[in-house]
Amino acid sequence: MRRFTLRLLMALVGVCLLVLYAGAAYLTYWGPAIVWQARPSLETTVLYVLVLTLVFGYFSYKFGTERMLAGLNAVELPESRAPRLHHRLDDLTAEMDLEKPRVLLAEMRAPNALALGGRSNGILVFDRSLFHLLDADEFETILAHELAHIESHDSLVQTLAYSAVRTVVGLLTLVLLPAILLLTGVARAWAWLRGKPFHWEQSPMGRLRRRLGQIVALVFVLLTIFVRAHSRHREYAADDRAAEVTGKPMALARALRKIQRATETGFGLLSPLYVSGEEENALSRMLSTHPSMDDRIERLVEKAEGEGKGRHRIEVE
């Protein structure tokens, strides 16, 4: 009798779970369905989504930049404190047809640099230790590298790209959510009816629900890999632009080598903006925002050799 009562209670719990999840699935389907019925034309809908993505991405970038600089304790570096830097910055911005960006000092826990903004509102941020690590020519090439990012609005483009990824994944999740909830409810209810409430994911419905979740995760990973690949491409482009503007590819190679040796490998929210980047395996290489530092240095050495900068093989110490 006691066993029968327990099974009856478990069956009741299963039915309640099914009703709960089915109701949630209906609500998540009903709301978007009403919006979809009242939708404008497909072209207008796509335009609305695109505009909203860009607007949210821009404001995310704008306010995120302010929070980032506050978190780094960034302060202005006036010309009176670094006249040579500002003089060379004036020359580079004139050559690259840019408005002079703000120059900030920050605490990044490692020698590094990052660029924010675009042609008319650029910001350069340098870790304090970078000034003691690099000589004048090396610092000039890092300066040109970061200006190349500003020239191409790379930080804004990356932020908008991540905003687009979130939008696509969010829309896909919204479309699949009713099915995910319903499958979860059926799987949990069936598990309770069988007396195995903790094994619901092993049922056919549970496995199907897991597959839908994996589809969302796979789309997110693939889009992220695409965005990160674009980021790595922009790093190569910034290296090439810096070598072109300064005419000192070997100085940039030496600067990167020094930064590599002085910087511990790590990952954080600022990693898409840093000048350095390392990889450990194939997956981390695909998800890295920066190419291998060795690859970047090798490209610069080959560029220097191709331009006749030395008769013999050039080594970067």
From TrEMBL:
Q: Which domain of life is it from?
A: Archaea
Q: Which UniProt keywords apply?
A: Cell membrane, Hydrolase, Membrane, Metal-binding, Metalloprotease, Protease, Transmembrane, Transmembrane helix, Zinc
Return the EC number.
3.4.24.-
The GO molecular function terms of this record are: metal ion binding; metallopeptidase activity
Residue ranges annotated as transmembrane are 40-59, 168-191, 211-229
One Pfam family name is Peptidase_M48
Entry cofactors:
Zn(2+)
- GO process annotations (BP): proteolysis
Tell me which residues make up the Peptidase M48 domain: 80-302
Could you tell me which InterPro entries the record lists for this protein?
HtpX_protease, Peptidase_M48
Q: How is the cofactor bound?
A: Binds 1 zinc ion per subunit.
- State the family named in the UniProt similarity comment for this chain: Belongs to the peptidase M48 family.
UniProt protein name: M48 family metallopeptidase
Report the source organism: Halospeciosus flavus
Q: What is the taxonomic lineage of the source species?
A: Archaea, Methanobacteriati, Methanobacteriota, Stenosarchaea group, Halobacteria
